[in-house]
Design goal:
This protein is an alpha/beta fold. It has three domains: about 1-185, Rossmann fold; about 210-270, SH3 type barrels; about 270-350, Translation factors (Elongation Factor Tu (Ef-tu), domain 3, Beta Barrel), CATH 2.40.30. The chain has helices at about 10-20, 50-60, 70-90, 95-115, 145, 150-155, 165-175, 200-205; strands at about 1-5, 25-30, 65-70, 120, 125-130, 130-135, 160, 210-215, 220-225, 250-255, 260-265, 275-285, 295-300, 305-315, 315-325, 335-340, 340-350. The strands form four sheets. The chain has a six-stranded antiparallel beta barrel with strand order 12-15-14-13-16-17. A five-stranded parallel sheet has the order 3-2-1-4-7, with helices on both faces. It has a four-stranded mixed sheet with strand order 9-8-11-10, with no helix packed on it. Helix 2 (about 50-60) links the parallel strand 2 and strand 3 (about 65-70). The protein starts with a strand and ends with a strand.
């Protein structure tokens, strides 16, 4: 069995648990950058040289073989370039979701199976039993949302040993096992943007291009920007609007038009949507019959609110009708469907009304 070890406490304890259970375990760390110094380090790190060393030390304590797999080129193409291209198209991607889909459970799993391993274990906080993906018992750390893109075949070769434990229990266990990462802070934000400045990162790759900020209610140009890619639907801060709204209330980004380089703003009430269309649907549970809506719930962002809904598959599109309106729904985000705490499917949001 292969244990993917990020260098954090979760993956270290996950590897220790499956080794202790009697599995023949090999630990691997993914080298995701040709220049690891450009990635975030310390409390906000992920997949840096520091993390590689932490993963190796954890493998030594556990007593399992350890290797580093170079996935830098694949990561750059499938995650970093995808991130830039999605923003250029006026969408808001989730790079962690894409990394799980394309790297950890496609590239890594494919290589693992080819080498004769039967499964890949990770430190994700989610429960998996008989191919059924469920939320973690620790609601605050639940990561089933970012795993919702996985297919049933991928889930059949995955193991998530931490789903029945809280994060506090995982840290306590790491300390008992003598793992130095027991108190290592969790990673946050986007690993490949070293200083956390997404707008600057995108500007460096897409260049700057001045465009208008338009008020949806009046049609007037109320400001300007240096690239529509620097905004996302629902954004309130950093709009640099030159004139206040007539009602004196804050304005939010309502839409982004990359062709005309126009950002449209308006009141919060205009952000409300009840209908969502998703593309590239993935079903973890039984595939619903076309034109037969199902009652379920949907989560629209990591650790976001859950909405009751009716979901209906129509060809290659998923139509979701929300019971109550949601705000800040942006194309490019993931929509993950649940039946109770069980993931039943997902799609990438293409539009919302």
């Amino acid at each position: 069995m292969l244990a993917a070890m990020s260098g954090g406490v979760d993956s270290a304890v996950a590897a220790a648990r499956i080794a202790e259970a009697g599995h023949d375990v090999t630990g691997i760390h993914l080298a995701l950058s040709s220049n690891p110094q450009s990635y975030r380090t310390g409390a906000r790190g992920c997949c840096t040289l520091e993390d590689s060393r932490d993963a190796r030390r954890a493998a030594d304590v556990i007593g399992i073989p350890f290797y580093v797999w170079d996935m830098a080129e694949r990561f750059h193409h499938d995650v970093v370039e995808d991130f830039v291209n999605e923003y250029a198209a006026g969408r808001t991607p989730n790079p962690c979701l894409r990394c799980n889909e394309k790297i950890k459970f496609e590239a890594v799993l494919d290589r693992a199976l080819a080498l004769g391993f039967d499964a890949v274990a990770t430190g994700h906080h989610a429960r998996l039993s008989d191919g059924v993906l469920r939320r973690s018992v620790d609601e605050g750390k639940d990561q089933s949302y970012v795993l919702g893109v996985l297919t049933r075949e991928q889930l059949a070769h995955a193991i998530f040993p931490l789903g029945d434990s809280t994060k506090a229990q995982v840290r306590a266990e790491a300390a008992e096992r003598g793992l130095a990462v027991a108190d290592k802070p969790d990673s946050h934000d986007i690993c490949f943007i070293a200083d956390g400045d997404t707008r600057a990162f995108l500007s460096e790759r897409l260049g700057t291009s001045e465009g208008p900020i338009v008020d949806a209610l009046t049609g007037q140009v109320v400001g300007s920007h240096e690239g529509a890619f620097g905004f996302t639907v629902g954004q309130r801060k950093g709009l640099r609007i030159d004139r206040p709204a007539g009602d004196g209330r804050p304005r939010y980004v309502l839409s982004i038009e990359p062709v005309s380089n126009t950002v449209t703003v308006g009141p919060r009430s205009s952000l409300e949507v009840r209908g969502i269309v998703g593309e590239r649907p993935v079903w973890n549970g039984p595939v619903p019959e076309a034109y037969e809506p199902i009652r379920c719930t949907v989560q629209l962002r990591a650790h976001g609110e859950v909405y009751g809904c009716r979901a209906q598959l129509s060809g290659d599109l998923l139509h979701i009708e929300l019971d109550t309106p949601a705000t800040g729904v942006a194309p490019g985000q993931g929509a993950v469907l649940y039946d109770g705490d069980t993931v039943i499917g997902s799609a990438t949001i293409s539009s919302a009304v």
